[in-house]
Amino acid sequence: MRPAFKLFAAAFLLLVTQIVLAGPLITVYKNPTCGCCKKWVEYLQKEGFEVKAVNRDDLAPIKKQAGVPPAMSACHTALVDGYVIEGHVPAQAIRPLSPALSREGRESFLGS
Q: Quick check: 80 and 27 in contact, CB under 8 A?
């Protein structure tokens, strides 16, 4: 094998590994002044999730579009891999929703 191809293959494998380990992006829509929402975002990041926090003064349109019933509405709404997560859901409850989010799913993809 040529050295250039080996270098390309190694770089590609590293890139794919980083993407798989990061998992899908969790987008959290939250009120900019809510401290508990900020802490939940930080918690998810510490748990290894890639999180995009979007500050909105009015979350009602996001919740309506996501299908969140008013009776189940919380202070923030997260969207990940086709799922709607409402409120302070623990990381261990989020991971099983998608193979890309679970450690087991990442390991099986990587062949570990």
A: yes
Task: Please tell me the least confidently modeled range out of 6-15, 20-29, 62-71.
Answer: 6-15
11 domain residue, yes or no: no
Q: What is the CATH number of the domain that holds 79?
A: 3.40.30.10
54 φ/ψ angles, rounded to the nearest 5 degrees = -115, 115
Contact 51, 45 (CB under 8 A): yes
How many domains does the chain contain in total?
A: 1
Please give the model's pTM, rounded to 2 decimal places. 0.69
54-84 pLDDT tens trace: 999 999 999 999 999 999 999 999 999 889 9
How many CB atoms are located within 10 Å of the residue 67 CB?
8
Q: 30 phi and psi, to 5 degrees?
A: -145, 160
Cα separation of the two ends of the chain: 26
